[in-house]
Amino acid sequence: MIKRVLILLMGITAFWVSGAFAEDLDVELSCPTSVYAGSVLRVTAYVSNDGDSAVTLNRYAAGMVGTNTNNVLSSSRVFGPYARTMNPRTIPATGQTVKISSLSIVNSVSADFKGKMAMVVVDFVNARGNSLGGGTCLVNVP
Question: In the structure, what pLDDT confidence band is assigned to residue 33 with cuts at 50, 70 and 90?
Fold first, then answer.
Protein backbone atom coordinates (compact mmCIF):
# COMPACT_ATOMS: atom_id res chain seq x y z
CA MET A 1 0.00 0.00 0.00
CA ILE A 2 2.77 2.43 0.86
CA LYS A 3 4.33 1.67 -2.52
CA ARG A 4 1.12 2.73 -4.28
CA VAL A 5 0.96 5.95 -2.26
CA LEU A 6 4.59 6.74 -3.05
CA ILE A 7 3.96 6.11 -6.76
CA LEU A 8 0.98 8.50 -6.68
CA LEU A 9 3.01 11.13 -4.80
CA MET A 10 5.81 10.81 -7.38
CA GLY A 11 3.21 11.24 -10.11
CA ILE A 12 1.83 14.36 -8.45
CA THR A 13 5.37 15.72 -8.10
CA ALA A 14 6.06 14.98 -11.77
CA PHE A 15 2.75 16.67 -12.58
CA TRP A 16 3.94 19.92 -10.97
CA VAL A 17 7.47 19.68 -12.37
CA SER A 18 6.13 18.88 -15.84
CA GLY A 19 4.45 22.27 -15.87
CA ALA A 20 7.76 23.74 -16.99
CA PHE A 21 7.59 21.56 -20.10
CA ALA A 22 3.84 21.66 -20.69
CA GLU A 23 1.87 23.36 -23.42
CA ASP A 24 1.03 26.33 -21.17
CA LEU A 25 -2.34 24.87 -20.22
CA ASP A 26 -3.99 26.13 -17.06
CA VAL A 27 -6.42 23.60 -15.63
CA GLU A 28 -8.90 24.23 -12.85
CA LEU A 29 -10.95 21.27 -11.66
CA SER A 30 -14.38 21.51 -10.13
CA CYS A 31 -15.46 18.57 -7.98
CA PRO A 32 -19.02 18.03 -6.81
CA THR A 33 -19.60 19.05 -3.19
CA SER A 34 -20.05 15.40 -2.25
CA VAL A 35 -20.31 11.96 -3.80
CA TYR A 36 -21.59 8.79 -2.16
CA ALA A 37 -19.68 5.51 -1.97
CA GLY A 38 -20.69 3.30 -4.88
CA SER A 39 -21.48 6.28 -7.13
CA VAL A 40 -19.76 7.33 -10.33
CA LEU A 41 -17.47 10.33 -9.82
CA ARG A 42 -17.26 12.89 -12.60
CA VAL A 43 -15.63 16.32 -12.48
CA THR A 44 -15.58 19.42 -14.67
CA ALA A 45 -12.35 20.96 -15.96
CA TYR A 46 -11.88 24.56 -17.04
CA VAL A 47 -8.90 24.65 -19.39
CA SER A 48 -7.17 27.68 -20.88
CA ASN A 49 -4.19 27.76 -23.22
CA ASP A 50 -1.54 30.47 -22.89
CA GLY A 51 0.62 28.90 -25.60
CA ASP A 52 1.24 29.97 -29.18
CA SER A 53 -0.79 27.22 -30.84
CA ALA A 54 -4.06 25.39 -30.25
CA VAL A 55 -3.94 22.10 -28.34
CA THR A 56 -6.32 19.21 -28.87
CA LEU A 57 -7.09 17.13 -25.79
CA ASN A 58 -8.36 13.57 -26.05
CA ARG A 59 -6.55 11.66 -23.25
CA TYR A 60 -6.14 12.13 -19.53
CA ALA A 61 -5.04 10.28 -16.42
CA ALA A 62 -7.38 10.31 -13.44
CA GLY A 63 -7.22 9.10 -9.86
CA MET A 64 -8.33 9.52 -6.26
CA VAL A 65 -6.43 9.40 -3.00
CA GLY A 66 -7.45 9.72 0.62
CA THR A 67 -7.09 8.19 4.05
CA ASN A 68 -9.70 6.08 5.74
CA THR A 69 -8.34 5.80 9.31
CA ASN A 70 -6.82 8.45 11.56
CA ASN A 71 -5.52 10.43 8.56
CA VAL A 72 -2.21 8.56 8.50
CA LEU A 73 -0.24 7.71 5.39
CA SER A 74 -0.20 3.97 6.10
CA SER A 75 -4.01 3.87 5.82
CA SER A 76 -4.15 5.77 2.54
CA ARG A 77 -6.21 4.45 -0.31
CA VAL A 78 -5.15 5.14 -3.89
CA PHE A 79 -7.39 4.53 -6.89
CA GLY A 80 -5.61 5.19 -10.16
CA PRO A 81 -4.09 6.61 -12.11
CA TYR A 82 -6.51 5.38 -14.75
CA ALA A 83 -5.93 6.09 -18.45
CA ARG A 84 -9.04 7.74 -19.87
CA THR A 85 -10.07 8.92 -23.32
CA MET A 86 -12.57 11.63 -24.17
CA ASN A 87 -14.11 13.23 -27.20
CA PRO A 88 -11.42 15.51 -28.67
CA ARG A 89 -11.60 19.12 -27.48
CA THR A 90 -9.47 21.86 -29.02
CA ILE A 91 -8.21 24.55 -26.67
CA PRO A 92 -7.48 27.70 -28.73
CA ALA A 93 -4.25 29.65 -28.23
CA THR A 94 -6.09 32.79 -27.20
CA GLY A 95 -6.24 32.25 -23.47
CA GLN A 96 -9.96 31.49 -23.83
CA THR A 97 -11.27 29.08 -21.18
CA VAL A 98 -12.97 25.92 -22.40
CA LYS A 99 -15.29 23.97 -20.09
CA ILE A 100 -14.96 20.19 -20.27
CA SER A 101 -17.80 18.53 -18.39
CA SER A 102 -18.26 15.00 -17.07
CA LEU A 103 -14.66 13.79 -16.93
CA SER A 104 -14.93 10.29 -15.48
CA ILE A 105 -12.65 9.66 -12.50
CA VAL A 106 -13.89 6.34 -11.04
CA ASN A 107 -16.87 4.18 -11.93
CA SER A 108 -17.61 3.47 -8.28
CA VAL A 109 -16.28 5.48 -5.33
CA SER A 110 -14.85 3.04 -2.81
CA ALA A 111 -16.52 2.63 0.59
CA ASP A 112 -12.97 3.11 1.97
CA PHE A 113 -13.53 6.86 1.52
CA LYS A 114 -16.84 6.94 3.44
CA GLY A 115 -16.83 9.74 5.99
CA LYS A 116 -13.65 11.27 4.54
CA MET A 117 -12.44 13.89 2.11
CA ALA A 118 -10.70 12.60 -1.03
CA MET A 119 -8.35 14.36 -3.44
CA VAL A 120 -9.10 13.98 -7.14
CA VAL A 121 -6.27 14.31 -9.68
CA VAL A 122 -6.63 14.84 -13.44
CA ASP A 123 -3.69 15.28 -15.81
CA PHE A 124 -4.18 15.77 -19.56
CA VAL A 125 -1.58 13.91 -21.63
CA ASN A 126 -0.46 13.90 -25.27
CA ALA A 127 -0.03 10.88 -27.57
CA ARG A 128 3.40 10.19 -26.05
CA GLY A 129 1.98 10.23 -22.52
CA ASN A 130 3.63 13.54 -21.59
CA SER A 131 1.74 15.88 -19.30
CA LEU A 132 0.07 18.89 -20.91
CA GLY A 133 -1.33 20.18 -17.61
CA GLY A 134 -3.69 19.13 -14.89
CA GLY A 135 -5.26 19.94 -11.59
CA THR A 136 -6.69 18.68 -8.33
CA CYS A 137 -9.85 19.21 -6.29
CA LEU A 138 -11.39 17.80 -3.12
CA VAL A 139 -14.64 15.89 -2.71
CA ASN A 140 -16.47 14.86 0.45
CA VAL A 141 -17.65 11.23 0.68
CA PRO A 142 -20.42 11.24 3.33
Answer: very high
